[in-house]
Specification:
By secondary structure, this protein is mainly alpha-helical. It contains 3 helices and no strands. It has a domain of 32 residues. InterPro entries: Ribbon_hlx_hlx, TacA_1-like.
């Protein structure tokens, strides 16, 4: 999957085989894993935040 992220990062149109489509849908349906670093990042105040 890491290689797929690198290859697909700049593409806008994706053509998949039936098997690849099924695998893609399965990846989307997997439960979200806890990402402590992202949680910390989004909890911090943004430099673009104009309130407060």
């Amino acid at each position: 999957m890491a290689h797929a992220r690198d290859v697909l990062a700049d593409r806008r149109l994706f053509v998949l085989t039936d098997a690849a489509w099924t695998e893609f849908l399965a990846a989307l349906d997997r439960p979200v894993s806890h990402k402590p670093r992202l949680e910390k990042l989004f909890a911090a105040r943004s430099i673009f935040d104009t309130e407060g």
